[in-house]
Amino acid sequence: MAFSVPGYSPSFKKPPETLRLRRKRVRSLGADLSAGERPEPEPRRAARAAGLPLRPFPAVAGRGDGGPGPAGRNPFARLDNRPRASAEPHDVLPRGPQQSPGPFSDSNQENDLLLEEKSEGIAAAESIQTSRGSLSESDIPPAENTELPADWSIKTRLLFTSSQPFSWADHFKAQEEAEGLVQHCRAAGATLPQGLQDPKLSTELRCAFQQSLVYWLHPAFPWLSLFPRIGADRRMSGKTNPWSNDETLQRILMSDWSVSFTSLYNLLKAKLCPYFYVCTHQFTVLFRAAGLAGSGVATALMAPTTRGVREAMRNEGIEFSLPLIKESGHETKATGTSPGHGKEQAISDEDEEESFSWLEEMGVQDKIKKPDIFSIKLRKEKHEVQMDHRPESVVLVEGASTFMLLNFLINCKSLIAASGPQAGLPPTLLSPIAFRGATMQMLKARSVSVKTQAVSGFRDRFSLEITGPVMPHALHAVTMLLGSSQSGSFSAGLCTHEPTAVFNICPPADRVPAQGTVREELARCGLHPKTLDQLSQAPTLGRSALRSVEMSNYSCSWRS
């Protein structure tokens, strides 16, 4: 009967015995495989003669034993598999994923075999990396410089990342801030060179960046964020709104808003303002001056709309179209202009009567219940109602009808919410230039530096975040500045206010402006000449918007 001894296991073997058996297997296998291939170093022969234990792992090149074996790391040196930062400058060969240790086997002999089998792959990968690294930038053919397409949606957040710091975008001096504001008010755009040696010391860059962050807003209440307005009830709940139950104050606010709205439209008509937005709690309207977006006349896009709003616009005599459903003949008739709407409706009723004439020819008209006029009308309006609050409901107004739309919006009672946190609050006016009653605002910019995990250890990664209502001109201006400050290489993630993505549809091409006249007529609209050239092109994004941008060697690629 065996005694029960605490901590005793019959199958337990002492570690020295196990290691001794493994060393014997390694020595015998090494003698068979590499006795004639690799001469054993003198220190190892002396240690073997003295009976000292030898480490079976192949020696790493450059550590004093002179062995020509493949370069590899001891996988037991650091269990967290992170290379030491101090060792990086002394690396002779470039590191890659193949040098990280794989799964460990039960015996050191199998580890040796794995390292031997991978040595050829390591050498091949290193030769490829060396050949790639030997190519200079001048040997790489330059890519075609592609400009970003015009994006008429409003962005709520931009996140730029780069391998170079954005420290130049922080801590503006008082002189630089004042210079940037003056440049914006005087529309004095600066053109920077492609590559800046030290962006942090470039006063022109910092002033131009300050200039690109400016926008104009009405109304303005410091305790309320007035963009976006669609779906903002939860964000505005609990905020102080003294006008919600005060009709006199509501009339004052609406009167002041009407003056500002009319001022903006007059600037647009005189081509001193390129575009502006009207943001309500239900829809957003984009007014554009003649010559922008490939149109020779002033245009206005409204989205999303409802059947009630479109019917009210018809009653006011506003001519409009639904560009995304032009292929539907029935819907084109339903949304036709007011003068011909009655005639088209009569024609549609006659067609409906003829569709039931075949029942009389068969003699079964009495057995089938004919739909009444009310049912027929509901079926006709079903498709029009189904597209409410959807991108397909976008409305396009052109030419002189934009002025009629202005009067319609000023007198529209449903323009202001009757209840909820936005009750009594006029719509938000957003503009790239100053107008009557406007308040100057600044987009918020913040730069952050982080360390990211890489194959060769940790590396610095820098980011620049811009939040606020980023309008099309600001997006283009910032990308131009970052092309100069970041040596033409950066990445960007763009967050879009989704109800405005449909503003990228292309208007009809029957009124295309003449070439060369757009820049002359809109020279005083306050935009940089390059930005004006971009926004004057016909939109190409359709119903989508820019989601990400990648610039490499001053060549842009994007995803929508």
Q: Can you count the beta strands?
A: 13
Structural class determined from secondary elements: alpha+beta
Fraction of residues in helices? 25-40%
- The count of helical stretches stands at 16
The helix/strand order is: HHHEHHEHHEEEHHHHHEHEEEEHEHHEE
Task: Give the percentage of residues in beta strands.
Answer: 5-15%
Integer count of domains: 3
Any idea what the radius of gyration is?
36 Å
CA distance, first residue to last residue: 79 Å
Mean pLDDT: 76
User: Which of globular, elongated, flat, extended, rod-shaped describes the shape?
Assistant: extended
Q: For the largest beta sheet, what order do the strands appear in spatially?
A: 6-5-4-3-7-2-8
Low-confidence segments: 59-70, 78-145, 327-348
Strand count, sense and barrel status of the largest sheet are: 7 strands, antiparallel
Provide a descriptive summary of the structure in words.
The protein has 560 residues and is of the alpha+beta class. It contains 16 helices and 13 strands. The strands form 2 sheets. The chain has a 7-stranded antiparallel beta sheet. A 6-stranded antiparallel beta sheet has the order 9-10-1-11-12-13, covered by helices on one side. A hairpin with a 4-residue loop joins strand 3 and strand 4 (284-288). Helix 4 packs across helix 5 (203-212) and helix 5 packs antiparallel against helix 14 (472-485). The chain is extended and about 110 Å long. The model is unreliable at 59-70, 78-145 and 327-348 (pLDDT under 50).
